[in-house]
């Protein structure tokens, strides 16, 4: 099948999924479901493309397994937050800004479906990779995946454990991986996309795989990740978070500029 038809099918399925998500949020008044659907949709896109692709079995199997497991972990993590907590402050702010206009919220959900197709481009490159034998790049991709997904899982678990403590409310997390980056989960999420760059080497569409880390960095750094998260943190924690900003690198982990008291961060992602 033509690769671009494959991508069109992924987009259509994502649009249907996001329509169902929009209907769910109308009933539950929680836009946060869009994050869990986006993560789960990407894993489903990887599996669909691996199934439809005309590449060799080995890279297609690696794609389905690695992207599927990454997606399942992240989607379940986000779903537990959506199900067990009030609507994230970022989405409360967005709902208030749009005055609850369901048409605008629907368009927002459909834009997320478009993003599923955009972020599926690296998967498409892997799905048509003709390399049929193991290569050093295959093992490099698996190693990158293990390090990045493991790091993101640790960062998420550290934050979730602190958020579960009632005494953490209004405080900024500075322990564990969060001591070296204000957004270690975002850092490992970005790093994870390099795994598909490695898996796509040898593919006629290998250049598409670079869209993953490039577009993810742009979104995290300037569009929907860090700007929204930090704006919400400043609204809820004020000077405490400003001190965290002064002392701790934003994304790439490094040693803090000075010792800061241990406390915790409320909402991230």
Summarize the structure.
The chain is mainly alpha-helical and 269 residues long.
Attribute tags:
mainly alpha, 269 residues, disordered C terminus
Structural notes for this entry:
With 269 residues, this protein is mostly helical. The protein has one domain. The protein has helices spanning 3-28, 33-52, 57-84, 89-97, 102-119, 121-127, 136-163, 184-192, 194-200, 211-223, 226-247.
Uncertain segments:
262-269
Mean pLDDT: 93
The total domain count is 1
Q: For the CA atoms, what is the radius of gyration?
A: 19 Å
Bin the strand percentage: under 5%
| SS-derived structural category | mainly alpha
Separation of the first and last Cα atoms: 36 Å
- Tally of DSSP β-strands: 0
**Tally of alpha and pi helices:** 11
**Biggest β-sheet strands, sense, barrel:** none
**Helix content percent band:** 55-70%
What is the H-and-E element order?
HHHHHHHHHHH
| Large-scale geometry | globular
Blueprint (SSEs and pairs):
Blueprint: H1 3-28, H2 33-52, H3 57-84, H4 89-97, H5 102-119, H6 121-127, H7 136-163, H8 184-192, H9 194-200, H10 211-223, H11 226-247
């Amino acid at each position: 099948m033509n690769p671009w038809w494959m991508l069109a099918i992924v987009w259509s399925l994502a649009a249907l999924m996001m329509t169902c998500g929009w209907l769910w949020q109308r009933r539950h008044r929680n836009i946060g479901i869009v994050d869990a659907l986006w993560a789960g949709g990407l894993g489903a896109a990887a599996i669909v493309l691996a199934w439809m692709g005309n590449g060799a079995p080995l890279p297609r199997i690696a794609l389905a397994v690695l992207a599927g497991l990454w997606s399942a972990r992240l989607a379940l993590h986000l779903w537990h937050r959506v199900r067990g907590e009030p609507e994230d402050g970022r989405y409360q702010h967005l709902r208030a800004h749009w005055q609850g206009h369901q048409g605008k919220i629907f368009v927002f959900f459909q834009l997320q479906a478009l993003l599923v197709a955009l972020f599926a481009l690296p998967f498409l490159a892997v799905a048509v990779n003709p390399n049929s034998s193991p290569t050093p790049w295959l093992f490099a991709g698996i190693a990158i995946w293990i390090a990045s997904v493991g790091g993101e899982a640790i960062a998420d678990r550290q934050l979730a454990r602190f958020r579960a403590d009632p005494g953490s409310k209004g405080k900024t997390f500075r322990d564990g991986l969060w001591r070296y980056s204000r957004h270690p989960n975002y850092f490992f999420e970005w790093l994870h996309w390099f795994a598909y760059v490695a898996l796509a080497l040898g593919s006629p569409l290998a250049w598409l795989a670079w869209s993953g880390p490039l577009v993810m960095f742009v979104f995290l750094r300037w569009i929907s990740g860090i700007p929204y998260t930090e704006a919400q943190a400043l609204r809820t924690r004020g000077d405490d978070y400003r001190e965290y900003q002064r002392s701790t690198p934003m994304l790439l982990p490094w040693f803090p500029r000075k010792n800061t008291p241990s406390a915790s961060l409320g909402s991230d992602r």
